[in-house]
Amino acid sequence: METRIFEATAEDLQAAAELIKNGETVTFPTETVYGLGANALDEAAVAKIFEAKGRPSDNPLIVHVSELSEVEGFVEEIPQGARLLAEKFWPGPLTMILKKKEIIPGCVSAGLNTVGIRIPENETARAFIRACGVPLAAPSANISGKPSPTTFEHVFEDLNGRVAGIIRGGDARVGVESTVIDMTSETPTVLRPGGVSVEQLREVLGDVRISSEVKKDDIPKAPGMKYKHYSPKALVYILGGDDEAEREFLSKRAVFGKVAVIAFDEMKDILPVCVHFISLGSKSSPESAAKRLFDCLRECDKVGAREVYAPEILDEGLWRAVKNRLYKAAAGKRLDAQTAKSVLFVCTGNTCRSPMAEGIFNSLGKNGVASSSGLCVLGARGAEEKAVEAVSKWGIDLKSHVPIQTTQEMLDCADIVLAMTTSHKWTLFDDEKVFTLKEFVGEFGDVADPYGGDIEIYENCAVELKRLIEKIEL
Ligand code: TXA
Ligand code: MG
Fold first, then answer.
1. Domains of the chain by range and CATH?
2. Which has the closest alpha carbon to 344: 384, 386, 390, 375?
3. Closest ligand by atom to 121 CA
4. d(CA 98, CA 104)
5. Kind plus residue range of the DSSP H or E element containing 100
6. Which residue among 59, 203, 377, 404 is least packed, with the fewest CB closer than 10 Å?
7. Which pLDDT tens digit goes with each residue over 195-254?
8. 177 ligand 1 Cβ < 6 A
9. 60 lines ligand 1 (CB under 6 A)
10. What confidence tens digit (pLDDT) does each residue in 307-321 have?
11. With the C-alpha atoms ordered 7, 8, 9, 10, is the resulting torsion angle positive or negative?
12. Going by CA atoms, what residue is nearest to atom 17 of ligand 1?
């Protein structure tokens, strides 16, 4: 699809609005993040949003309007509390969940009887919505799962060729998405922390609950919160611990591949030079952290990081939104630099057993990070296809694995080395940190090489590795 680029001029906004009226999708700037809009009352147009983003259809969309007077047309009632919030925070980074009227199609609300409504503060956004003359259903304008877009370049990178139009605006002022508050529950409940803090909401409403983190298999109240989100391709961890321990841990990890660290400027000087520093701004400015956050996460991919470490964040004010996004990017994985272990899995060619073991270990949320290497790596460019397939059903992606030869430096920097067979172990010398995987978990024997076997042999090997690795205690 050809994507037209529009500037934020009255003339261009009018032209972009014509596309919306014709049932097309157009992205637009808001003060939080860029949105991917379509006419909320046109089911076919809304379907194009889900398609462009690759978004699961059980995740409802926020409806954006330009004036409070329009809201009544789309919701059953506006409770008193919602009116107070509207007065104080609209236009602005707040989305209220209200009981929807029939006119809002089920595909917008993902079948729920509620709808999220927001009046953005950004002037271009409001001028655009007015020019459209219809409410705009709009999620963040990123490919599903990737960090939300806070600049025109982010939107262009993700959606050029997938939407009818992109409106160029400045960088988002807030940088994290709107706060989503459910005004249909007895006590107003924050489903997603965002640009308006819980403390600010409490000033107006008194009692406000914060929804406990959505567990994977629950039917969540804000369906969007259950998906893995904001994730670079790299492994992302929240790293805690004192400065010295962090420094030592990061120096060791850098031996196994490119490490990026998202950190405050105050930390820069204590980080080892071998890691790539990505600035979250000053520790004293939650505004700057919020504003930079998604760009930081995108930079991790740009620099080709294998592992990314992000700091622990306070549970207050705007920090709460920053913390929520970083924990989502890390899928909740947190390591303590003092105790976290570096584990190295070793097999022959680093194309089957050890990459599978590495992927499985890193998917299990253990107190450590695994890498893998081979004793005799012979020009293979990736993991064996069948190994990639055998672990993919657990959400483990080995497609970008590059086989590497074991080096002395890697052995020195690993805390534990786990070989697949006794003969691998003897090749690695009898260092006290070298074990066979089975020996380490109290069993005897080797993990047999699936190389050359059919997919069933690989799958059996993967299942055996998973069973053994689940038993690892660090
Ligand atoms: O700042 C923002 O809110 C941006 C800009 C473009 O306005 N939009 C945005 O939309 O972040 P999206 O789709 O990426 O996130 C909307 C979140 C999701 O977690 C979704 O599940 C939740 O709001 N949500 C939407 N409608 C809901 C409803 N009726 N009930 C519960 N949660 C809802
Ligand atoms: Mg989003």
1. 4-178 (3.90.870.10), 235-336 (3.40.50.11030), 341-470 (3.40.50.2300)
2. 375
3. 1
4. 12
5. none
6. 203
7. 999 999 999 999 999 997 533 333 445 555 555 677 788 999 999 999 999 999 999 999
8. yes
9. yes
10. 999 999 999 999 999
11. positive
12. 224
